[in-house]
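User: quick one, sequence for these tokens?
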């Protein structure tokens, strides 16, 4: 059963563990033209206390290294906290996010299968964690991947 937050059994966003080495990523990082780097990954499919993983086949079309990725975080915070507490939290969250992002790798590609499911993966090398987001059907390809890569060209 699926809902608006899932594609089949896969959540639209979650944790993922790439089964490839950084030495493989470096070969394909920051190239101008799309590539076809095939690898596998483990998805965290856990629900509540029930721990579950699933292996998927990936085709990565574009890899951006930390020096090319250069993300910048903007933080806003709402709620009932006093203004000075909110401002302190914003500074702390921004510092943490910027620390993660300066060592992050970004991957664009798709999950192989009967139907291609487009995926964006961010690997936070500094904390050994990767997170993915799937392209929803109602989002345009160029809007999801930007001008970085068009996997349909491969």
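Assistant:
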């Amino acid at each position: 059963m699926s809902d608006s937050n899932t594609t089949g059994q896969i959540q639209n966003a979650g944790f993922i563990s790439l089964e490839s080495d950084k030495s493989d990523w470096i070969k394909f990082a920051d190239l101008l033209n799309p590539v076809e780097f095939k690898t596998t990954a483990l998805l965290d499919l856990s629900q509540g206390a029930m721990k579950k993983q699933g292996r998927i086949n990936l085709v990565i079309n574009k890899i951006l290294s930390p020096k090319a990725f250069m993300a910048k975080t903007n933080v806003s915070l709402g709620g009932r906290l006093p203004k000075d507490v909110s401002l302190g939290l914003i500074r702390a969250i921004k510092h943490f996010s910027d620390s993660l992002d300066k060592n992050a790798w970004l991957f664009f590609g798709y999950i192989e299968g009967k139907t291609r499911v487009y995926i964006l993966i961010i690997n936070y090398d500094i904390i050994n964690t990767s997170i993915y987001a799937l392209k929803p059907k109602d989002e345009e390809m160029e809007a999801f991947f930007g001008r970085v890569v068009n996997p349909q060209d491969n």
